[in-house]
Amino acid sequence: MHLFFPLASLVFFSLGAAGGWQSGLALFLLLIAAVAVREVARLLVVAYLGLRLRTIMLLPIGGLYAWATPESQEKSAQGSAQYALAAAGPVANLLAALALTAIFLGASPTLALFAFPLVDASVLIRSMVWMQVAMAALHLLPAYPLDCGRIVRNLFSRNRDSVTAARAAAGLGQTLALSAMIAGMLLRNPWLMLVGFFILIGAQIEDQGLFFQSVVDTVHMREVMLTDFATLSPSDTLADALSRCVHSLQEEFPVVRGPELVGIISRQRILDALRTDGNGYIQSVMNRSFQVAGPDDTLGAAIRRLSAGRGLALIPVIETGRVIGLVSVQNLMGSMSLLSEQRRIERQNSGD
User: Which of 126, 174, 237, 299 supports an S-S bond with 216, CB 3.0-4.6 Å?
Assistant: First the structure.
C-alpha cells in the first residue's frame, strides 16, 4: 500500500549523502512527521463530520482517501465539508511549524531559521520547521489530488458531470506535475522533481480510479449476474448443504424460504459449523445481514455495497421478490472480462 515511501526514502538518502545515511534517514523522518501531522488533522475532521473511511493510501504528499459509503463520498465533496477537509492539512502543518519555531527560538534565539538552504540534511533543526511549511504550501497548489486541486475539481463539477470534472482536474494536476519535474531538471532542483513526481503518481492513481468508476457505472447487474446458481433452504442440514457444496463451484449460497431470501451462507461457514458444533440446520448459522440489488442497478453501486458490508462477498439480484441472479467477488472479474469482449465483438459486427 505504501510502496512510495521506500522510494522516497531512497531519494532522501541520496539528498543526505554528504552527511551519511543517518542524515538522509533524518530527512525522511521529517517528511513522515509532516505527513503524519497533516493526516491526523484530516482524520479528526473526518470523525467530526461523521464520514466513514474504507482505506487510506499514504504517499509522501499525503493520503488518498477511499470512502466506505457513497453518502460519505458525496458529503466529503460538498458544502463546508470539502473546505474543512481541504483546510485541515495545511492549517495543521502551519500550526506545527509555528509551534516548532516558538520552541526552537525560545531555546536558541540566535537560530537562523531563514537562512538558505531551508531544507537540507546539514540543518535538520531548520528543516524540521520548513518541512511542515513546505507540506502546507504544496497543498495550496491547484493540482489534483492536492487539497486545493480538490476544490478546483468541485468547481469544475458545477457545469459538468462529476467524473468528467474529476478527470479534468486530474489532467490539470498531471500537467502541473510534469511542469514541476521539467523545471526541477532545468534548475537542477531535486525538490521540484520529487514533488512533481509524487503529484504525477497521485493524479494517475486518482485518474485510474475515476476511469474504473466510469466503466462500472455503465454496467448493470443483469449484464454480469450469474443466472445458473444453487440455493439452500434454512431447514437444510449442514451435512446436506456440504454435500451440495461438493457439486457446486459457488463459494456463497443464498438461503431462501419459498421465493423469499432470508439469509446468505458460505461453504467455509458450513465447514466451520460442522467442525465445531456438529450437524445442525442452516438457519442457525446463516448470515441474516445482507445487501440486495435490482437487475437495473449499476455495478458501481453494487461494488460500493460490497465494500461497505464487512465480510460481504455476495449480492443477490432480486426481481418481484425472487432471487434471479448473483453477483459475487469470486465471479465478478471473469464476468467483466467476458462482458468487455462481448461488447467489443458487438461493436465490430455493427461496423461491418
Answer: 299
